[in-house]
Structure formats: C-alpha cells, structure tokens
Amino acid sequence: xxxxxxxxxxxxxxxxxxxxxFSLKSLVSDIRxxxxxxxIYIGLALLxxxxxxxxxxxxxxxxxxxxxxxxxxxxxxxxxxxGGKQALDNLITKELISQETKKEGVSVTNDQVQEEIxxxxxxxxxxGSTLDAALALQGQTRKDLEENIKIQKSVxxxxxxxxxxxxxxxxxxxxxxxxxxxxxAKIENLQEDIREQIKSEKFNQAxxxxxxxxxxxxxxxxxxxx
Length: 226
Description:
Layout: H1 24-55, H2 57-60, E1 61-65, E2 68-71, H3 72-104, H4 110-126, H5 131-137, H6 142-158, H7 167-176, H8 178-181, H9 187-217
Antiparallel strand pairs: 1-2
Helix pairs in contact: 3-6, 4-6, 7-9
C-alpha cells in the first residue's frame, strides 16, 4: 500500500498597506494650492472677458460722451427713423431685380461692367475730377459702383425693346440742345453721347413702371414699421 505524501502549507505574510498620516501642515498646504489655482483661473477668465469686451466694444457701443455710452442699438434706431424705409425699399428692389434676372436667365459679365466703368471714368476726367473723388462725394466706393452697374445692365437687357434709340430721336435731341453744345458742334461727333443720354432717360421711365409692376406681382411682407 502506497503511503500518501504530506503537503506542507506555507502561510503568506499579509501585505502591508501604507497609510498616509494625517498632517495639519499638509492639509493647509493643499488648501492654499487649490485656492491659488482657483484664483489663477478666475484671473484668466476676467482677463479674457475684458479682452473680448475691449475688442468687441464697437459691437455694442458707438461712442462715449464724457464716459457715458451711446449704444449701437440707439444709433441703428436713429438711422432707421431717418431713412430706414428708403433703405429697406432699395434692398427690396435689388432683391426683386435679382430674382427676375435669374428667372429670365439674364447675366452681365465682368468685362461689361469694367467697360462701363471706363466710360464713366472718362467722362469724370473730362470734368477735371477723378472717379474715386466723385464716388467719395456720394459716399460710395468702386465696389458699390460695380454692383449698381451690374444691376442697371441686367435691367437694360430685360427692357431692351423699350430702350431702342432711333436716328430721328438723336437728331431731334441735338436740335433741341444746340445752344448747350455750342457753335460749331457737329452731330456726327456727339451721336453716341446723345444716344446714351436718350437711352438713360428712357431707362429711368421704363425702370420705374417696371419695378412697380414687379412689386404689385410679388408678395412682400414687412416686419418693421417706420
């Protein structure tokens, strides 16, 4: 008979865990560190807020008078009372024109716009001024001029039939304005300028009635009252 082997059981020593001893000094130090961090975060937040307010001050304040602010909102309200309705009507007209030209597939190239600017610049130069100076007097820029020319050229294409100028109209206009042109003036030299003048007058008349027709056929809802 085989004798059973005895196994020796070895008891494992208990794992000792280190416990942090309570220290009033370390507790005070931790509190101070947390307070210092909090103060740093608060300081950074205040600095960031102040920077944003300084950089974006013009978004809220239009001017300061002896330390008292004139808000941008009060400025906008004042401007709306002075010319808000006219400004809004102009924006509505531009939008109506934009919608109509898209619907009719009418477009104006940049070359056409620049060609017209060159023509206008030549006329202004003949009068002893510059285009930029003339625009500045009207509170406009070249970008504004380009936009207005693009709109005008688009409408001219839509109203092309109504803007035709005949030779008889040119001759009649020349005869009516002979004193303005002076002695020795020849119609051959002024024909194109007269054509453009007559065309401009026809455009103003046709444009007004055309826009009124667009307005009557469009659904326009106002959300502001001036």
